[in-house]
């Protein structure tokens, strides 16, 4: 899922306008976009979204949508005052004191009207060393989930996912998983939260594997905030299905294109005379019409270059996911993974964490 903060893709210069959705539709396989509840509540706000009967109509997006609970934005943006009832914080927009409870999060997400919404969780950065805080967050996330279940006004129209917390502690993760499984009939899908925050890759993979091995096989598993192409392949090998990340568009802003070998930095001087497309395997409009030298010349002066790179990067991620999906359906996932890592690490041995992750997934690389 590409992330559309405030329902827009900044790099594509489209605030609630047709072009944003036009471009996304043309990246081929984007089926779901993620909108940030916190930003959408600030602008355009629930009242306007209610008038349009929700975000999809407001941005003229006819495919899937997902909204986060709003909690993560607060943790990442703000000086957090943590209390049992919900999270209190100061708005970075106008300094107002705001307060988000599970009920309020559900209320806003019901107004936004996404197909998938997320229960409010108590997020602690995986880099934190405060064990008590992780215990508290694990317990509280389950308590808040019960309040979200009660407050959710449209359970038959909007699928609410519960979020597993517990940091990097396997015991806490088990507690969180068991708590969610006890409410399985309310949960059409599950998310693995509190990762991708700077923890060791080995630990990250072990937690994803632990969660996926315990979750129901017939419901989607969503690893939140994951978006490097390699991580998407690894998590899929470990049993996950769904990802969101700002990475493809954020890295495009810095002049970086995603390619099967890794990344291509368009600002480097070697690009000035490189007349190949970004990725010769790519079928996107950028790769069909522009060469690396053209984009290199543009990248420092013309903001449209970042749009072009965003477009390619999103298409790259979508093709990766489609190819992976086909490989899984055709029982060709192991050869897919082998070809993928061989291309990314042609001469070098695989990093140890990666070999261990594929061992966990029983995939021989
Ligand atoms: Zn392309």
TrEMBL record:
<keyword id="KW-0862">Zinc</keyword>
<keyword id="KW-0819">tRNA processing</keyword>
<feature type="domain" description="tRNA-guanine(15) transglycosylase-like">
    <location>
        <begin position="1"/>
        <end position="344"/>
    </location>
</feature>
<keyword id="KW-0328">Glycosyltransferase</keyword>
<dbReference type="GO" id="GO:0006400">
    <property type="term" value="P:tRNA modification"/>
</dbReference>
<dbReference type="GO" id="GO:0046872">
    <property type="term" value="F:metal ion binding"/>
</dbReference>
<dbReference type="InterPro" id="IPR004803">
    <property type="entry name" value="TGT"/>
</dbReference>
<keyword id="KW-0808">Transferase</keyword>
<dbReference type="Pfam" id="PF01702">
    <property type="entry name" value="TGT"/>
</dbReference>
<dbReference type="InterPro" id="IPR002616">
    <property type="entry name" value="tRNA_ribo_trans-like"/>
</dbReference>
<dbReference type="InterPro" id="IPR036511">
    <property type="entry name" value="TGT-like_sf"/>
</dbReference>
<dbReference type="GO" id="GO:0008479">
    <property type="term" value="F:tRNA-guanosine(34) queuine transglycosylase activity"/>
</dbReference>
<keyword id="KW-0479">Metal-binding</keyword>
<protein>
    <recommendedName>
        <fullName>tRNA-guanosine(34) queuine transglycosylase</fullName>
        <ecNumber>2.4.2.64</ecNumber>
    </recommendedName>
</protein>
<dbReference type="GO" id="GO:0005829">
    <property type="term" value="C:cytosol"/>
</dbReference>
